[in-house]
Give the backbone structure.
Amino acid sequence: HGSGIISVQDWLRSVSGAGQAFHSGLQLTNLPLNGAHHRPLMSYPQLGSTNCFWATGDLARHENKDARVGTGEVGVCTDFAGGAVRAGVGVGIGRQTQDLAFGGRSKVDGQFLVGEVNWRPEGSPIVGSVTAVLGDWDADIRRGYMNGTTQERSSGSPDVDALALRLRADWFDAARLGSATLTPWASYTWSRVKVDGYTESGGAFPATFDGQKHNADELRLGVAADWSLTPATGVRGTIETVHRLDDRGPALSGSEASGLLSFNEPGARIRKNWQRVGVDVDHRIKPNMVVTVSAHAATSGEDPSYSAAVSLRLGF
């Protein structure tokens, strides 16, 4: 290894791009949390049963990272304590692709588990919820760089593990605005991502990357407005503001595989505040079957620039 002519600055730039596996794991884990599970299970139309099945799909794009993310899941839920508690569990798959510098490309895919518990004390308008997503992801990173006038690629496949836990409180129908009912909410999310260390193969100047670990946490405040268009169709509009409590992502360190160069970059600074708006349409097909279509857009931050989800919920 190390045969050829290389710009140190360009090589380090390519290394920095290849260190995106951490962000990919966080994005894949947060998409179902803030997509298909962006509202509590108890906020969906009643299905006339104490048990439910759901199937959902999410698609999203991060414009500032040139990344595309998709997830799909199926799950079941049931009510306890006379309907005061609703608990659900689901399994899903996800994939994220991202273009990197010098013709490089990153693909991260795998599977996840999601669990959610809602609690609404009898006679109370407050719904408390706990939601957890556990992701097991496999990264395939092809790092591009220039060796003289020749484009080279070195590849690596680290494992990425992620866990996100959200605590949330919704005040159902706290106020009315014309024909709409308003539901404010607040949430706190803690996330942890671990990327295994790995050594690339192929190319003239492969690199060895040290492992990464990082905890992220954020606060969200929002309000939803619900309208009933027809007896079978309802619309929900949402607006929320997000504040990240951590300042930087994880540091990136390692070396050229033969020891020619080393690098130790501080974590990238994280945008602290951004906003997101969304709309949901709930349509009842049958007394025990509801289809929901949702779309969200966010200002520049850690949420996807654009995202959409479709879900089918069936009572049984």
